[in-house]
Write a structure and sequence with these properties.
Helix content: 25-40%
CATH class of the largest domain: Alpha Beta
Number of domains: 2
Shape: globular
Structural class: alpha/beta
Strand content: 25-35%
Low-confidence stretches: 95-108
Length: about 475
């Protein structure tokens, strides 16, 4: 079961209280239950949901996972041709084979009830190295265990009002919606992201909890400070997607002084892995790669490529064992996307453990080998992001006849100019000498892919092509 039994309970106990708010439009627990139940008889075994944020999204999602049904949530911003291709593939899921976790089983098909715990209910789509997203499945039990773990870790209560201002088609926000339905807590989102609308929700709707990515947190915090938006009522901020840089953390703490700021490491295929909460007034580790302790119910090991456990401080594959891991892939698995070593699962992210804290280094494919030393760009970027005057940083490995590769780094200044001397002195106590960049550049903008992700190859292309968006620092 993911959340429908809980939805029925809240609808019985508190039918007239607000469950979901989208762009100011409210839906009570009773109406959410009734509207979703009305859609169940016509709901197919597998629903493809491609819709912008709306009250209807929440209703349709609840109906789409009733009984033994499955739901695939597509980004409505994807090209029509891609959506059509994915819909055609998903239509064949019911013939995926004898695995009961992958085969829809409709139980009490006209009722708004949860299906078998081990049966799949969600077809997740994650971008890969190709233009066609990979697809994996999740069981109801995996999300129930995830809910129990995240509610305990983040301290979610029924008194909380959560704002997740991003698209519900994104897994972070879809999970936040379902988590609130499970916990009986009020969920808020916007019909599209708008800084003013998010600030209005914080100011007027009594928001106590934010769920968002670091770039959005920084935007809301900096503009909130400039505009005098009161965020003192926010008690928790949950960030995912990348580790918080120093500037974002500073702005968030000033804007929401009473909030505990959580960051965590996880993956679509693994769910939650580790996390940490920085309480008001608690000092942060500058430039650190630590991403907290294991989540409740999660065991972490660092294994080499043969599956042998590495000692404390040794870097290798971050592997987890928990009941929150997905069922695996329907398509797109190249054998590396989700590997298993005798019950320990990894998506190939590299890191190490030190006194029980997980340190995230990044993907092996990003690793720079310079003069025999392994350097992960993430380490360099986090160190540079802690330097005053740096808004963002990108590091990459450039071909070098002597070293094999040399580390180069580029920064977006937060204000005014920044010099190479400032950057060098700023990371002296944070980054080992053999991992420090040999060249520094200033950026007018970040090198991003068409999907909005940092592209280190594009950075190298800009350097080699003397692009106008990049300038060498002396």
């Amino acid at each position: 079961m993911p959340f429908l039994d809980r939805l029925q309970r809240w609808a019985d106990d508190r039918p007239d209280e607000t469950a979901v708010v989208v762009a100011g439009t409210r839906l009570t627990w009773g109406r959410l239950r009734d509207q979703a139940a009305a859609l169940v008889p016509a709901a197919p075994a597998v629903t493809v949901l491609s819709e912008h944020n709306s009250i209807r999204f929440a209703v349709e999602f609840a109906a789409a996972v009733a009984g033994g049904r499955q739901c695939a949530v597509l980004d409505p911003a994807w090209p029509v041709q891609l959506q059509d291709a994915l819909t055609a593939r998903i239509a064949g899921v019911g013939h995926a084979g004898p695995d009961p976790a992958r085969t829809p089983v409709l139980t009490r098909g006209t009722d708004l009830v949860d299906g078998p715990p081990e049966a799949s209910f969600l077809i997740g789509l994650t971008s890969g190295t190709t233009s066609v997203p990979k697809a994996f499945t999740r069981s109801r039990r995996s999300w129930q265990e995830s809910f129990d773990a995240s509610i305990e870790f983040f301290g979610l209560t029924q008194a909380d009002k959560t704002l997740a201002p991003g698209p519900l088609a994104a897994s972070l926000n879809l999970y936040a919606l379902a988590e609130c339905l499970y916990a009986g807590a009020e969920f808020h989102t916007l019909d599209h992201f708008d800084v003013g609308a998010a600030h209005a929700a914080v100011s007027h709707d009594g928001i106590t909890r934010l769920v968002l990515v670091p770039t959005t947190l920084r935007l809301l915090s900096e503009r909130g400070l400039a505009g005098g938006v009161d965020a003192s009522g926010i008690s928790s901020i949950i960030c995912a997607g990348s580790k918080l840089d120093a500037r974002t953390l500073e702005a968030a703490r000033r804007w929401a002084p009473n909030a505990t700021i959580f960051e965590y490491y996880g993956a679509s295929e693994l769910s939650f892995v580790s996390g940490a909460g920085l309480r008001p007034g608690e000092a942060a580790e500058p430039g650190g790669t630590g991403i907290g302790k294991p989540f409740p119910g999660v065991d972490i090991r660092i294994l080499d490529d043969r599956g042998a456990e590495l000692p404390d401080g040794g870097d290798g594959n971050i592997c987890v064992r928990s009941g929150m891991v997905s069922n695996g892939y329907l398509w797109g698995d190249d054998g590396e996307a989700l590997r298993c070593f005798d019950g320990w699962y990894t998506v190939g992210d590299q890191g190490y453990l030190s006194d029980g804290t997980l340190h995230m280094l990044g993907r092996r494919s990003d690793m720079i080998i310079t003069a025999g030393t392994n350097v992960y760009p993430h380490e360099v970027e986090m160190a540079l992001a802690s330097v005053p005057g740096v808004a963002a940083a990108v590091a990459a490995g450039m071909a070098d006849d002597l070293r094999g590769q040399r580390v180069v780094a580029a920064v977006v200044p937060s204000h005014g100019a920044v010099t190479a001397t400032q950057l060098k002195s700023g990371i002296e106590d944070v980054l080992a000498r053999n991992k420090r960049p040999l060249e520094y550049f200033a950026l007018a903008e970040l090198p991003l892919t068409d999907r909005g992700k940092i592209s280190r190859q594009l950075l190298l292309d800009w350097v080699n092509g003397n692009d106008s968006r990049i300038r060498r620092l002396g």
